Every structure is written in structure tokens, then in C-alpha cells.
Amino acid sequence: MRFTRTRKALIMPMLLGTSLLAGAGSAAGEETIAKLPTIEVIGTTAEALDTVPGSTIVITAEKLEATRPLSTQDALRREPGVHAVETEGYGFFPRIGIRGLNPDMSKKVMLLEDGAPIALGPYTDPAAYYHPPIERMERIDVLKGSGSLRYGPSTIGGAINYVTKNPPYEPGGSLTLTSGNQDFRSLLFDYGGTWDNATAGISYLKKTGDGTRRNSDFDVDDLVLKTGFGIGPNQFVGVKLTYYNQDSQSTYLGLTQREFAEDPRQNKAAHDRIEVERYSVDLNHELQITPDLAWRTLIYANNATRDWWREDFDFNAGTGLNEMRGTNGGRLREFTVAGVDTRLELNHLALGIHNETEFGVRLHTEEMNNQRVNGATADARSGVIREDDRREADALAAFLQNRVHFTDRLAVTPGLRVEHYRQERTIHRWDNQDVNLTNKGRNTEWVPGIGATYRAADALVLFGGVHRGFAPPRVADAIASDGVAIDLKAERSNNYEFGVRGSLPRLSYEIAAFRYDFSNQIIQASQAGGATSELTNAGETLNQGFEVGIGADLGWGFGLDANWTHVATAKLDSTRIIGGIDRKGNRLPYAPENLVNATLSYRQDNWGAGLSYQFVDEQFADFANTREGSANGMTGLIPSYSLWHLNGDYQLTERVKMFASVKNLFDKKYMASRAPQGIFPGLERLITAGVKMDF
Can you tell me which residues the record assigns to a coiled coil (predicted)? Predict the structure, then answer.
């Protein structure tokens, strides 16, 4: 994959500057220590959580260890405000929605890993066709308030940051083996340690299975290498390398209404196959210039291929069945992304008032090469090229945030993010015709926000804020297949939030009310969106409601974690015509009114167990709010469902732990989605057991 001159001009000076700085620090010859620097989204200290002017979620290592989630999607769906829609059960392509926002391929949330964007194309195509496995994670941070302005480009639903495991201080490692039904197998190897002024670690994951539907096997390899070292007492460098490969029979083809009734586990697309291969490198640099001034820089680069071969099919209205044609189509994409995110953090006094100022600049560039190929057979892996185009984006973003501590109890945090981006599409071939058309689009967005926190009592913190939400349209939506730029405005919203949180000796809680008022919501035209795919500026929409979360120590070893999200309003609030019909007042698709999660846990000495409950309210699958299920399965009501999950673990020796879990304990048959193309059943009962051995 080539870089343009613009891309080289953006990236090379920062790479060179960081290298020279590291070399200068090394020459000083001062005593050094080991550290892995990183850009934090929330932080882990009580003070950091207290002053975040918005709703937060921190899924700790202890919680991940206790609940044994199957994927990042499985971990997130248990949290307040988060709706994660299944399509294949294992979270390879998560559909994460926040507070009633459309979860279509997680396009309305900013997904990060250790502060670096992980979408294959954040500006060209932010759909989550790659997602890191939960096994490599130490913590997950979710930021839903005005603090998410520090990250972009998609600041509407907030930011989700996956924090990877750091090497331990004492050299050592672990081997985790897991097995279950659906022929599920997993091997995880971790090793690392600290030696003098350097720390390093390796993590390797191998995961295979048959999948929750027939003809849906998967094979995943994931490798992470991390190292960090000190250069003098106040300067640190960290490097992370990753390799990910997924080969699976994932499909866009769901079930018709008749097929779901007859056998919800069937899958007629026996030859569908996707391969996702991704390489990445992150370089972190941290310089503590003075005790009150820090400079942090993240340089990130990744390359990914996503080749998806899908069988062609027709829906037979007479039989109510999908019929395979015996041919297929390849959607072949390659992405290259690179960027530099550098920021200064300053603690200072102004007029005798304590301030925390953060200023950052991010240079970002990406390129996507896209081909669609017609295959002559159902299992073809080559064919006639019918579409061939290149999509590019360059962006310059700057943000300034200043937290003013007026008193020990009151902090106010205004912030501003400016995004300037350029999008370009060059079309070489379309509908089997050579066209060679190029068009460009540019835009600048000013994204302001302000938030505040007030500690009213030791166990009561009030928080609130308002900020502008923003997301750019995809390149394929902004520039049509004929090379003409479409009048497709950026997606904008005004987001409001107010809440309280606090901790008592045996109780922690957070309650938040929210309102997302869109001046323009884009409805994208994509097969992933299913019946919701109609490319248009949908105009005004409104999401509002509240969420409640508690964690309680009940005594005698029992604990309770519970949350309730109530999205009272999620509606089209505009007279703009969609599909030839006025949809004003209709509820937005995939926006359940109520989500409830509860886990009752028990922990005693060397063993523990947990019983979890999950409720998802009914959802519409289209903007017309169709209730009757269509014969092809793509429209109609998605009924509410309730699920139970069970997990437990036993510390056999100091170095050996055994564990087991049951997802969907009572093997509930339920409809998880009607997108992309028909009904997708939820995960059937999955029983897994394993052992973790430390050494």
C-alpha cells in the first residue's frame, strides 16, 4: 500500500522528531526505570473518576476475570447505556449502540485501543469489521459525556477504549486453556516481566469453533508484543506490535420468517467466508518536562485486508425461502491508516485557581482500496472485477480542554475540538465499465463542549455537561459512484447529560439523564444496515432517557451489580421525507426502550460464582415501524427477550485456577437482529470450561 506525498509530509517529521528526542534522552545517561506510557481516556484513580464531567464505565480486570465474557461485545452489553446487537454471537463484528443510537457496525462510537483508533477506516469507512479479542484486555473504559471531545472523529455516542494488558513486574506468565460445545477451543499464552530499565511482554491467542449456526466455523490468531523502557528519569518510550488473523464462515445472510420458525440454526450460505488480516504498530513517548508539565505522543500505523466472499441468493416469495444461485461476489478491501496524536498536559495556577490544561493535535491519514468481484461459482475466490475504486482521507484535528478547580469540590471543564478533513474518491471501474473519475470533499467542524462536577458530599458527586456531537459521512456516501459529490452533511447533534454518582462503604452508584438532539442524522445506504439503509439526510432526531447503575456488597460473600437503561424517546423529529413517506414521530430502529442487567455473585475464600440476568426490550427493524414480520425476515418487530448466564471459578492451588461458564443458560431461542439480510438468531447455549496455569 502506497503513501501519498501528503501522507509522508504528515507522518515523517513526527517520527523523526520523536526518534531524535529519544536519542537525546538516552545520551544523558541518567538512571532509568521501566514504564509503558499510554494515553488514558479516563484513568484509574478516584480523583480522575470524580472530575470526569460525564457518565463513565470502567470494566476492571477483576470484573473481566470473574464474568469471563466471550467477547468485548459480551462485556459491554452488561453495562448501562450500551446495546450490543448480535449477528454471530462471538463479537467478531460488534454492533454497539449507545443510548438508543443505531448500533449498525458500531459507527456512532469512537473505538480505541490504548488510545489509538482501531476502526479499519475511521474517515473512509468506520464499520467495525475488525475488533480486538477480549482475551488481550486488562480493562475497558467507556466515556459518554463531554470529555469524549478529546477523541474523534465520531464523538456522538462517546468513546470506548480497550486497555491491553501490561507485562508484570516480576517475570512470569500464564497458559489458559478453554474448551466447550460448538467445538469451541481457546489457547492463551502470556509472558512478560521487567528487567532493569526495560519491560516486555508477549501474548498469543488461538481460538476456533463451529459458531452458533451451522456452516459458521471460525479460526482466530492474535499476537501482541509490548515493550517499554526509560530514557533518563523523566522520559519513557513504549512500543506495541500486533498481528490479527480471522478466517471464518461469517455471513450477511440471515433467515426468512419461515426458515427461522423451522430451524433457527440453519445457514444456507455454506460457502461464505471472510478473512481479516491486520498488522499494527503503536509508538508511545512520554516526557515529564517538569513536575507540572507532561508531553505525550502516540504514533500509530496499521494495515488491514478484509476479503469477504458471499454467495448470491434470491428470496422466493412463493415458498418463503432463500434460494442460492450458485455464484458469489467478493468484497475485497485493503486499508492503510497512520497518524500522530501529540498532547501537552499542564497543571498550573491562574488567578490563584488550580487549572489542568490539555492541548493536543492529531494528524491522521488513511487510504482504502475497494474491489467488488463477480465469482462464477459459489466457492470462487476470483472473478470479473465489476467495481474498483480508491477512497482517501486526511485530517488535522486540534483540541483544547481546561479543567478549572474553583474549589476542592467544584471543577468546570470547557473544551473545543476542531476537525478539518479532506475526503477523496477515485473510481476506476463501476458496473463493469472503465470510468476513471475523481472527486474531493473538504469540511471543517467546530465541536465545543463544557462539563462540570461538584462533590456535594463524601458520597455524592453531581456531574453534567453539554457538547456537540459530530461524525463525518463515509467517503462512499459523500462521493457517489459516478464521482459526483453528494450534498450529504456531516452528522451533528447537541448532547446533554446530568447525573450523580458516589460510593459508600458497601454501595457504589451512578444515575444519569441524557438527551441527544440531532440537527441532522445520516441514514447510510449499506447492506450491513439491512432495512434501515436509505442514504439521506434524515434531519432532526431525538434520543432521551436515563440510566441507573449500582454495585452493592450484600455481606456474607454476596454481591449485586445491576443497571437499567430507559430510552423513553428515540424518534424521528423531522418532516423530512424518507422513502417517500413522512416518518415524523416514528421510533428509531434498534433502539429498545428498556435494557436491564443484573448479576448476583458469591465469593468465598478460593471459589466464586455468579448468576446474571439480561433483558432487552422489543425493537423495530425499520423506520416505518413495521410490526408484522416480512416474509424475507428483514422487517418487522424484534420481540423482547430475557437471558440467564452462569459462571464460576475455583482456585485449585496458588498457581492453578479452574473456571466454567454457561451463556444462555436455558437455551432461549430468540431473534437478535433482522439485519443485514434477514433474521439472525441469538447465541445458543454455550458451555465452556477451562484452566489457567501461572508460572
Answer: none
